[in-house]
């Protein structure tokens, strides 16, 4: 079986990717430092604990498994934290990724799939966000991901590092079988926080700002189901295996929902009220991030199957009620 090195395989998206890879016939080898990931989430292949900053450990793992490709999910990904502690983002995300990319090239591995983000685009009024939109990130999280994209391009030019870059919009939902799900400690994302508020695990949700230039004043995001997202990664891997070369793809549905609309849908799905209050804007948030690209559909044949807000919230709610991980 073909080994794929999955950094961050113990995290939310990485664990779902491991499941999709296993179902597609690959062996996902998780490399994770377990700072934000969970060993319980590693269910679909071998686990190697290690940090991206530890080059010797990375070399050891490349030597042991000789992966055909790397899927790089491991990253710090909170906008708020990135604003207050940018150094953590530049060290962990950028220096860590540089280390991983150097280890990949040194091991002779030529295929790399990278988790980037729509946060690299930043604020663009009335512009359709496609892969050619200028990247003007508003926060250190987006800036760190943009820098890694640049590193990949430079390494591809100098060596051979075929890479697929996926710029994710907002990932939500959980494995419908309940084997893995979203479990961040602390949690900062809208949908899991809202579900916590619904069942009394926190006092209430704070809506970050109602004075944005949107119909209801709250920020608009394009939500994509985690299972659809990881399906795109398997298609991206096939793309690289077929020698189609380096390419950037947005992964979003093209439909945006405001924070208040997400709250409204949650009430409909769970049949419970969402206790919330209005707070100030969160530093670093863009008004609207919605994909305007059809490239992943046209070139990879990617079709999101589960990315309705109802399905994402229903799958997240089922996981929320039944699933969790322990350290
Ligand atoms: N949000 C909110 N309250 C929260 C968490 C998030 O109003 O407690 C808003 C946030 O301002 C953004 C949207 O929900 O407009 C999605 O935020 P999230 O952190 O889930 O993802 P991000 O867009 O930062 O990647």
Summarize this structure briefly:
This protein has 327 residues and is α/β, with parallel strands linked by helices. The chain has two domains: 198 residues, Rossmann fold; 101 residues, Alpha-Beta Complex (UDP-galactose 4-epimerase, domain 1), CATH 3.90.25.10. It contains ten helices and 14 strands.
Describe the protein's architecture and organization.
This protein is α/β, with parallel strands linked by helices and 327 residues long. The chain has two domains: 3-171 and 223-251, Rossmann fold; 190-221 and 254-322, UDP-galactose 4-epimerase, domain 1, CATH 3.90.25. Helices cover 39% and strands 17% of the residues. It contains ten helices and 14 strands. The strands form four sheets. Strands 3-2-1-4-5-6-11 form a seven-stranded parallel sheet, with helices on both faces. It has a three-stranded mixed sheet with strand order 12-9-14. Helix 1 crosses helix 7 (226-241), helix 6 crosses helix 8 and helix 8 (259-270) crosses helix 10 (309-322). The protein is globular, with a radius of gyration of 19 Å.
């Amino acid at each position: 079986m073909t080994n794929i090195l999955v950094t961050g395989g113990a995290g939310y998206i990485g664990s779902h990717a491991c499941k999709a890879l296993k179902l597609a016939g690959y062996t996902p080898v998780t490399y994770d430092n377990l700072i934000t990931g969970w060993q319980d989430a590693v269910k679909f292949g071998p686990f190697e604990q290690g940090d991206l900053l530890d080059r010797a450990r990375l070399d050891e793992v490349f030597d042991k498994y000789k992966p055909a490709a790397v899927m790089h999910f491991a990253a710090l990904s909170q906008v708020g934290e990135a604003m207050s502690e940018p150094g953590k983002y530049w060290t962990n995300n950028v220096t860590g990724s540089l280390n991983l990319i150097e280890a990949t090239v040194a091991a002779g591995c030529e295929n790399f799939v990278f988790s980037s983000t729509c946060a690299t685009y930043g604020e663009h009024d009335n512009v359709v966000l496609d892969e050619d939109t200028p990247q003007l990130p508003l926060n250190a999280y987006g800036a760190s991901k943009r820098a890694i994209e640049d590193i990949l391009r430079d390494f591809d030019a100098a060596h051979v590092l075929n890479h697929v870059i996926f710029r994710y919009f907002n990932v939500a939902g959980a494995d419908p079988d309940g084997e893995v799900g979203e479990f961040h400690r602390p949690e900062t994302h809208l949908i899991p926080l809202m579900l916590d508020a619904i069942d009394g695990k926190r006092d209430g949700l704070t809506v970050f700002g109602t004075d944005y230039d949107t119909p209801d004043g709250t920020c608009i995001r394009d939500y994509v189901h985690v299972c659809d997202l990881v399906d795109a990664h398997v298609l991206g891997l096939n793309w690289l295996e077929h020698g189609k070369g380096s390419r950037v793809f947005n992964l979003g549905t093209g439909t945006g929902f405001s924070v208040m609309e997400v709250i409204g849908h949650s009430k409909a799905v769970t049949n419970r009220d969402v206790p919330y209050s209005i707070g100030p804007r969160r530093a670093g948030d863009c008004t609207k991030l919605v994909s305007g690209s059809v490239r992943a559909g046209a070139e990879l044949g990617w079709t999101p199957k589960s990315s309705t807000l109802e399905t994402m919230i229903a799958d997240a709610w089922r996981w929320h009620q039944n699933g969790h991980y322990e350290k």
